[in-house]
């Protein structure tokens, strides 16, 4: 429950990317058939629409954003970027990327029954091959970029984030913003209980016993609130900072996270030097750097690669003066302006 939301993001990069599709023949295309022209290729309207279906398949909440102009611009840029990068990838990266894509698709299919997966595809008018092609292009791009990461870059990133690799054993009590009966608490209510728990611990009551009685963290409560030998980078930021700075065997003040309020006691803490990192940890650092390089490509290089963009027009909605919604809102009065938070991130880390 307390794991950092960034700890598994393999799918998050695949939410807004490009499908591997056979390009339509250039003969007979009208300007409206081409969404974007870039160095070495074109993005067709058919590719754009199919990619949008995949996006909604993977993340249904994006359906309400699909016709917003800012979001369409971002989506086109992402499509062009991954189409361009995957095409330029090395032979080795392409082979490895295809294997990763097949593995990723299998993981998706295992999360539901075969019939459910088939129904989900049919709802968006997609085939399994559409998803596989899409994942191949994304994984190839990521694999190629990650293979360019040097050992020096990995070491530098480790130095900047070495706290994440500190191994910590601690106990904690979580007072959630939802009680055992699924009734919501206010922050004030949760904080009051957390202070009461701290008071009991300050008076010397056994931490494990208190955790079993009060903690609402399903991942540790029955174990007396214990997280044993855990890399600190797996925890959300505020919790992590307390884990790596709190003096040993000291009862913390309430620590606020999105989950509620925590009372911690760190029992042991050991820094992990670079030469003691596992290969999995080093690979995770490389993936993170590769993701950052794609972000950098998007922000700095893409503008010189795209020659022309012809965004698909949104469906027209007929209204009269009595029914026209306020500017920036949809027919229900809901604000529909895209924000930075609407844009899917492309960073990839591992558990």
TrEMBL record:
* Domain of life from the UniProt record: Bacteria
Point to the regions of Basic and acidic residues compositional bias: 315-329, 337-351
> Which stretches of sequence are listed as region Disordered?
308-351
User: Where would you find the membrane-spanning parts of this chain?
Assistant: none
InterPro entries under this entry? Answer: PPIase_dom_sf (IPR046357), PPIase_PpiC (IPR000297), PrsA_foldase (IPR050245), Trigger_fact/SurA_dom_sf (IPR027304)
- In its keyword annotation, does this UniProt entry include Signal? yes
What are the alphabetically sorted keywords of the record? Isomerase, Rotamase, Signal
Extent of the signal sequence: 1-25
Recorded hits in Gene3D superfamilies, A to Z, give:
3.10.50.40
- Name recorded for this polypeptide: Foldase protein PrsA
Organism for this UniProt entry: Paenibacillus macquariensis
């Amino acid at each position: 429950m307390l794991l950092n939301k960034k700890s598994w993001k393999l799918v998050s990069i695949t939410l807004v990317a490009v499908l591997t599709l056979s390009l339509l023949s250039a003969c007979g295309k009208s300007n409206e058939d081409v969404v974007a022209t870039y160095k070495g290729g074109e993005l067709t309207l058919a590719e754009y629409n199919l990619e949008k279906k995949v996006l909604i398949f993977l993340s249904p909440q994006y359906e309400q954003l699909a016709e917003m102009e800012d979001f369409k611009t971002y989506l086109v840029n992402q499509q062009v970027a991954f189409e361009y990068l995957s095409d330029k990838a090395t032979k080795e990266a392409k082979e490895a990327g295809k294997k990763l894509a097949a593995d990723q698709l299998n993981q998706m299919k295992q999360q539901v029954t075969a019939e459910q997966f088939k129904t989900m595809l049919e709802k968006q008018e997609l085939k399994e091959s559409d998803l596989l092609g899409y994942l191949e292009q994304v994984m190839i791009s990521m694999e190629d970029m990650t293979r360019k990461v040097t050992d020096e870059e990995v070491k530098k990133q480790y130095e900047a984030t070495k706290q994440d690799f500190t191994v910590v054993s601690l106990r904690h009590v979580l007072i959630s913003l939802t009680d055992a009966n699924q009734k919501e608490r206010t922050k004030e209510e949760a904080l009051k209980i957390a202070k009461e728990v701290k008071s009991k611990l300050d008076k010397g009551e056994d931490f494990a016993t208190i955790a079993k009685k009060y903690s609402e963290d399903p991942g540790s409560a029955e174990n007396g609130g214990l997280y044993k030998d855990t890399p600190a980078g797996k925890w959300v930021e505020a919790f992590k900072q307390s884990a790596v700075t709190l003096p040993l065997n000291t009862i913390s003040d309430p620590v606020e996270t999105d989950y509620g309020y925590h009372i911690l006691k760190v029992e042991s803490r050991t820094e992990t030097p670079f030469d003691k990192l596992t290969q999995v940890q080093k690979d995770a650092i490389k993936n993170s750097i590769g993701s950052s390089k794609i972000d950098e490509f998007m922000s700095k290089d893409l503008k010189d690669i795209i020659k022309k963009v012809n965004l698909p027009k949104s469906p027209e909605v007929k209204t009269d003066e009595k029914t026209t919604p306020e500017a920036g809102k949809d027919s229900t009065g809901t604000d529909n302006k895209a924000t930075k938070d609407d844009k899917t991130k492309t960073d990839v880390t591992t558990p």
